[in-house]
Amino acid sequence: MARRLPLSNLHISKGLQWARNHMPYGDNWMAVLFSDENKWNLDGPDGNIKYWHDLRKEPRSFSSRQSGGGSVLVWAAFDFNCQVGLAFLDGRQNSPKYIETLENHHQPFAENIGGRNWEYQHDNAATHTSSATKNYLNSKNVTVLEWPPMSRDLNPIENVWGIMSRKVYENGGQFYSVYALKTAIESAWYNLEPELLQTLIMSMEKRAYNVLLINGKTLNY
Predict the structure, then answer these.
(1) Do the domain assignments include residue 107?
(2) Is the dihedral of CA 4, 154, 197, 106 positive or negative?
């Protein structure tokens, strides 16, 4: 896990305003598609320094090969009713590549649900907020959910990555090929329980409330 940068007063202010606006969202959270990218290392999660773990369980430690290893980058998304992706991403990501991912994975989801009102969530990464990406999403009539800066802890898919990480790297697992790592990631993703994903979606109201409760500081989800 990358070290978190401290929140500025502006970040805190925007987070609080977001929480006030979205506390009353209620069942509207069921119509949000949450997305994220995540890097998976052959050697173990996040360079074997830190990783998300269930606070009810003991943290795990992993050894690291001295020579290091490769990694794969994944995009995925889910809403209350389904999972979208996985997409394994090649090379350094930019706006055209992100748009290609959306076209190949997000757009079939959008077409499948037809005229149902829904919103797409992604964070404020440069590839997500570029003019090219905004123009593409506008051309597809996609409503993007307002999202506060520096708020990875709000996104329920972060919990999904953590749950998957425990499965992918169980027993201190390491991988000696990208293919084997991809296979393990796919298995963990497609074996997620629908009830778990629904519970995470419905935790959003509490997350917004907790942002207000701790005055906009970082959550511990």
Answers:
(1) yes
(2) negative
Using one digit for the tens of pLDDT, what is the confidence trace for 95-126? 999 999 999 999 998 888 766 789 999 999 99
C-alpha to C-alpha distance for 63 and 145, rounded to whole angstroms: 39
Phi, psi torsion values for 123, nearest 5 degrees: -80, -170
- Beta-bridged to residue 120, according to DSSP, are 33, 144
d(CA 75, CA 16): 28
pTM higher than 0.90: no
Q: Is 7 helix (H, G, I), strand (E, B) or coil?
A: coil
Nearest to 203 by CA among 221, 178, 190: 221
CATH (domain of 156): 3.30.420.10
Question: Contacts from 182-187 at CB under 8 Å and sequence distance 24+?
Answer: 182/72, 182/88, 185/40, 185/72, 185/74, 185/86, 186/86
Q: Which residues pair with 40 in a beta bridge?
A: 72
Give the per-residue pLDDT at 48.
Answer: 39
> How many other CB atoms are found less than 10 A from the CB of residue 57?
8
Query: Does residue 46 surpass a pLDDT of 80?
Result: no
Predicted local distance difference test score (pLDDT) of residue 12 = 85
Domain count, the chain: 1
Tokens of 192: 């997620």
| Terminal C-alpha separation, the chain | 14
* Sequence-ordered alpha helix ranges (H) in 148-201: 156-168, 178-190, 194-201
Q: Answer whether residue 63 is part of any domain.
A: no
